[in-house]
Amino acid sequence: MTFSGGRLNREQEAAVKHAGGHALVLAGAGTGKTKTIIHRIAHLIENGVDPRRILLLTFTRRAAREMTDRLRKMVGKSADNIISGTFHHYCLMTMRRMQKDFNIAGATVIDRDDQEQLMRLARARYVEKKEVFPKAGPLTDLYSYARNTNQSRQGYLKKFTEYDEKTIGRIIKVFEDYDRRKKACNYLDFDDILFRFARVLHSSPAIRAKLRRRYDHILVDEMQDTNPLQWLILDGLRDPAKLFCVGDDAQSIYAFRGADFRNVHSFTERCPNSTVLKLQENYRSTQEILDLANWLLAESPLKYNKKLRASRGKGIRPRLIEFEDDLSEAEWIANDLLERHENGAAWKEHMVISRTGFGARAVEAELIARRIPYVFIGGVSFLQSAHVKDLLCLVRCAMSHHDLIAWMRYLTLWPKVGDVTADRMIAGMQPGKSIRDALELLRKHPDLKNESLERIVQGPEIILENMDNPAEAITRASAFLEPLLSSMYERWDKRRQDFNLLARLAERHRSLQGFLETYTLDPVNITQVEKREDEDVVALITAHSAKGTESPVCYLIRVEPGMYPHVRSLGDSDSEEEERRVLYVAMTRAKNELIVTRSLSRSDYTTFYGITDSGSTGTPYFLEGLEKNLVRMELPETGTIDDDDSDIIIPHR
DNA sequence: AAGCTCTGCTTTTTT
DNA sequence: AGCAGAGCTT
Fold first, then answer.
1. DSSP structure string for A333-365
2. What is the pTM assigned to this prediction?
3. Mean pLDDT, chain A, as a whole number?
4. Do residues A210 and A97 touch, judged by C-beta distance below 8 A?
5. How far lies A459's CA from each of A271, A430, A438, A466, A505, in Å?
6. Gap from A402 CA to C9 C1', in Å?
7. Which nucleotide is nearest to A541 (CA to C1')?
8. Of A170, A276, A605, A631, which residue has the fewest beta carbons closer than 10 angstroms?
């Protein structure tokens, strides 16, 4: 990202060579944060620190991989010896290697979808069908948030929700039921991964001592997005290991997930003898781009005390372009991309940033129609599509007979098996000690007498035969499921190709468990699998996923009332303020050119749900009162837009 | 007990 | 407009 070649400036060098206690590095957008982390690790290794005693915690696996790739170029293969990954990844890996200490043998990691599924079951027990009561989705959010911020359910619900006492009592009942179900199935949800690790770390001095002895240096990226649970983990692992935490409070955009920027603000109180270092010089963007970003922050009632200065100096003023609707917006962007490409620019020099995955749809359709190569980053991954889940659930069945959700899904794929029959079969397996016992019990189950169901047991057996060969297991399982699935789904021919893709992903793994867990924690997007990373493609990306990236030309699309701040955040000033930071993050991705687009007149997004009229009356909007000289206002060249007969339809293909 | 059909609700961001 | 859940039919 930020060029890692080139010399370090004085601030960066001070951070890289910092010796002594813990350090917090406040690094504004584009100030060479990644570069500084990499150089620091290289510096440590060159000064004799054993790479295996360096722990690097990042926010996404993508970031971890990118950093180790760049580090490898500097220090060679020893880069691969540092321990790097997300908090979740690191904690899970460590707990797996110390199974006995953490008591997680045989546990299945479940993703957000499964978690919601389980919550739905728990909810059904306490809530009448038509009753007005929070749905499983929101309940899961509440449950997760309370855990990530390490507070009691009761306290959290009372303080931060509007529910009355009675409702809160019932919500907690549902949560407790969820807990029981989770335990019965031996599941670990995302939060458990952090929670269990943190709990053992703080309740078992012996294990804590053992872990603390392992590291000399712990580096943390995106510190502003860590949550209280993650802080407890860092706190438990530090000393003698030195923390080196890098962050920027103006880029904190994950509060909805429990992130707490006190982890940045209270750092020095929590870590006595620590040093705060600053990186202030922006190397990424031109001053015009930063002026706009600075203006946005200055408009905030909060005091960020941030003013980015461009070491590169002057450049092109950001453009603000207005459209009739999102279709002409998308069309214009595609045209502009094509034009730039014809003039010799590479596709990969362009990034299209959207507030929501959904909001990028029109542009995506247009890119496909115009055959512009792109990757979509963020949004729904292909691992979440129904048929892929079917296959993965079959794999999971072979790993544990307690995996209720997987078994339920697998069994009900079969004709004449609904939830009732499936329940009965699953109950029949529970006395089994091992998965093989359980399969034996299932084979004898009365419901399998039916001739068409004999083959049910074969599915998991195929997987069991190929435990050490994930790719083969996937291939065989696909063939096994095909007759069932092909009749269930439309456009089966298209879907089945995803199975080949899945097998290719599996080739990279030696154990099925590792394969499953890797992609549960960090699902891969289909376009990311298909394309090589260094391929020449336009990046279509959500603002959240864009954090930590940069691009010479950035299109910021749909910067409209209802989007920034997003309608869902309205009414809560903290959330609204977070939206400002989302926009700030998006703006500061641009190196040379920032092109802001919007369609104010007929924003179907705002009219769509609830917002009374399409005029922006009353809806707060961050670009309201934008100083004219900060951007170049434009209308797209007319032409096709006004032709009545052009009646543009986006060609789907 | 399964499976189909209709209705109503939703669409933020992600480990 | 597309999906999940409720209710109805087989």
1. HHHHHHHHHHTT--GGGEEEEESSSGGGHHHHH
2. 0.89
3. 86
4. no
5. 53, 18, 14, 12, 20
6. 34
7. B13
8. A276
Distance CA A629, CA A636 (A): 19
- DSSP annotation of A59 reads S
Residues 118-177 of A with CB under 7 A from strand C: 120, 129-130, 136
Asked whether residue A421, judged by its CB, lies under 7 Å from any atom of the DNA or RNA strand B, the reply is yes
Return the exposure string of A212-228: e unless at least 16 CB atoms fall within 10 Å of the residue's CB, then b: eeebebbbbbbbbbbbb
Q: Write b or e for each residue in A36-72: b if 16 or more Cβ atoms lie within 10 A of its Cβ, otherwise e.
A: bbbbbbbbbbeeeeebebbbbbbbbbbbbebbbebbe
Instruction: Evaluate if the CB of A562 falls below 7 Å from strand B.
Output: no
pLDDT of A146-193, one tens digit each? 999 888 899 998 888 888 888 889 899 999 999 999 999 999 999 999
**Chain C bases closer than 7 A to any CB of the protein:** 5-7
Share of chain A above pLDDT 90, in %: 49
Residue A253 CA to residue A564 CA, distance in Å, equals 13
Query: Nearest nucleotide to A128 by CA–C1' distance?
Result: C6
Proximity of residue A455 CB to strand C below 7 A: no
Run of H or E residues at A41: helix A33-46
Closest Cα to residue A425, out of A437, A413, A438, A435? A438
**Residues A513-555: tens digit of each pLDDT:** 988 888 888 776 655 555 555 678 898 888 998 888 899 999 9
Q: Where do we find the tokens 């000399």?
A: A216
How far apart CA A509 and CA A490 sit, in angstroms, is 31
Residue whose CA is minimally distant from B10 C1': A609
Query: What are A21's two structure tokens?
Result: 């206690």
A491-497 contacts, C-beta under 8 A, 24 or more apart: A495/A385, A495/A387, A496/A387
Chain centroid to CA A609: 26
For residue A120, which nucleotide's C1' is closest to its Cα?
A: C5
Based on the number of CB atoms within 10 Å of its own CB, is A497 exposed (0-12), middle (13-18) or buried (19 or more)?
exposed
Q: Which nucleotides of B are covered by protein (CB under 7 A)?
A: 1-3, 10-15
- The amino acid occupying position A237 is L
pLDDT tens figures, A484-501: 888 777 777 777 777 888
Backbone angles phi, psi at A198, to 5 degrees: -65, -40
Going along A38-101, which residue ranges are E strands?
54-58, 83-86
